[in-house]
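Could you join me in thinking about how sequence relates to backbone shape in a protein? We need material for that, and I hope you will provide a protein of your own picking. Label the sequence line and the structure token line clearly, so we can match residues to local backbone shapes. Would you write everything just below, so we can both look at the same thing?
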Amino acid sequence: MQSLIKSLKVLEMVAEKQPVSVGELAKMMSMPKTTVQRILWTFHEAGWLRLIEGDMPRWAISPRVLSVRPDELTGGGLASAIQEPMAELRNATQETVYVSVYDGSSAVVVIDRLESPHPVRAVSPVGDIAPIHSTANGMAILAFLPELQIEKIINGELNSFNPSTITQPEQLRDELNRVRERGYSINRGYYRAGIFAVGAPVFDAMHQPVASICISMPDSRYREDKIAEWGALTMQAAQSIGLQKNARS
């Protein structure tokens, strides 16, 4: 089992850093180059990775990953329910809008986005994997997960990405309590320095968080006096998605 987990982590790292060399992967993951090389060639033979030849060969994800996209990414109930609320939220705030889903571990994955019309804007690609404890979409979901899952994440590894990242369990618990009280999350540059965001959870019919939606902006446009307004608009979009998705289910 540990060998499988190690191999999947290599695959995830390639997806995040591609194109990337064996040496770079070995250093980032603190693994022997021979082990990394063996894992890479195994995924290559299975069709999941491709080798980019050159002075320094590098590895990248192969198009085969598109064949295993979840329902959320292929026009399922959630995918079709998010389009109108995303557009309305983007038009109302003029900021980039993201919808993410929980990966079941300690991260969230962007499944769709609408970019801000401003020339300076925050942009992450669809498929981007971000930490659940330090992003607006992540905290919006984390705050409403079952208590056992919350504690597992809080007591796990809370990676620091810059001086603002919340890495202390008690501090994160307090932040999640505030998310539950007001109904939306606030990311004050916890993940990417200079990028602020406001997010809200999307619930299913059983009131379980199945996704989240957020607006993201550079700190130059972030205003504390706008938080309540942005939070209300984001929650309204999240509720609209939830209603549409549940109606389609």
Q: What stands out?
A: The first helix runs from residue 2 to 17. The radius of gyration is 19 Å.
